[in-house]
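In the design runs reported in the main text, the only information available to the sequence generator was the tokenized backbone. The following block is the verbatim input for one such run; it is reproduced so that readers can re-run the procedure and compare outputs position by position.
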């Protein structure tokens, strides 16, 4: 019997968990972080499953694997991953990662530049409050507006397709209550929207799959400006307001002339947690989002991946109740 011992630090960002792998495993090959992420998706499902799938993790968990950056301006590279595979970027994960690196003493408060598969982002950790991290995200833009979608239950909805570091469909006329008490119905409707986009042949942006769905609504708290239920690629919903989703939302607002540069936008999650956001206009078009959220360390330890354990590489999502999550 042999066992791999993977060191990790867990945190949550406005309710959404991140597990940073801090040592104990090799990393996928590649000249850039994007190339390493492709190798991770192709050949490293075992590591993804060992770190974030049950029985060591859960559908909600986002993993973060530290890798060397290729961008000379970046301090560190990271591959974010979930129950399905590598993400392009992850806003809540970047906040959790920056908080974790400062917690470990591997970074000082101040600006940290992080190379992700979607590009290099900046995370700023204030010296006087290391929980509140501000992320300067990758350029975000709207690809298509008001796409009409016919859902399997007969409803017609409209959505914008946008890039925020991941591909998003943002739907506003879904008719759902965006509340915790309505999670099952929100999840069902979001899946229907995603499938309808796929049937319409419109489910790509920046050569990536549109695999996140935002069901938007008015905020629950009138100090905030918007609220969304965000369905992640594996079927879990984002407990945080979703950093890449908020970035996509800023791009949609800017494209419709509904939010000026440098104007605050407070985005609520379905649990009521908040990201403070704003944007600057990107010279190439679209927006450069700035997102602030709080992260808290929740644990640290060692994952033991025993060679004799039949579930050492996780219980694959396809073998769980996929039918139940994709009604
Ligand atoms: O915060 O960007 C985000 C995110 C993506 C998936 C889960 N969280």
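Verbatim output:
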């Amino acid at each position: 019997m042999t066992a791999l011992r993977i060191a990790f630090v867990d945190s949550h960002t406005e309710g959404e968990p991140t597990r940073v792998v801090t040592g104990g495993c090799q990393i996928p090959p590649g000249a850039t972080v994007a190339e390493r992420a492709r190798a991770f998706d192709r050949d490293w499902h075992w590591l993804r499953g060992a770190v974030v799938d049950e029985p060591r993790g859960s559908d909600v968990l986002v993993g973060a694997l530290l890798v060397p950056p290729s961008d000379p301006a970046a301090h560190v590279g990271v591959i974010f991953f979930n129950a399905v595979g590598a993400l392009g970027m992850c806003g809540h994960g970047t906040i959790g990662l920056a908080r974790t690196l400062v917690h470990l003493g591997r970074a000082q408060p101040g600006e940290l530049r992080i190379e992700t598969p979607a590009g290099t982002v900046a995370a700023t950790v204030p010296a006087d409050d290391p929980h509140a991290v501000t992320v300067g995200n990758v350029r975000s833009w709207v690809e298509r507006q008001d796409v009409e979608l016919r859902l399997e239950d007969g409803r017609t909805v409209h959505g914008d397709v946008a890039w925020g570091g991941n591909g998003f469909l943002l739907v506003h006329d879904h008719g759902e209550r965006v509340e915790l008490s309505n999670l099952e119905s929100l999840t069902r409707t979001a899946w229907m929207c995603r499938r309808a986009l796929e049937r319409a042949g419109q489910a790509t942006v920046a050569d990536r799959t549109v695999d996140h769905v935002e069901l938007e609504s008015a905020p629950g708290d009138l100090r905030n400006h918007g609220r969304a239920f965000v369905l992640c690629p594996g079927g879990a919903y984002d407990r945080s307001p979703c950093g890449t989703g908020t970035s996509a939302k800023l791009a949609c607002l800017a494209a419709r002339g509904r939010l000026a540069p440098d104007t605050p936008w407070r985005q609520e999650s379905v649990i009521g947690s908040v990201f403070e956001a704003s944007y600057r206009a990107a010279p190439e078009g679209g927006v450069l989002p700035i997102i602030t959220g709080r992260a808290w360390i929740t644990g640290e330890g060692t994952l033991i991946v025993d060679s004799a354990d039949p579930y050492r590489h996780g219980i694959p999502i396809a073998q769980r109740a996929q039918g139940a999550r994709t009604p």
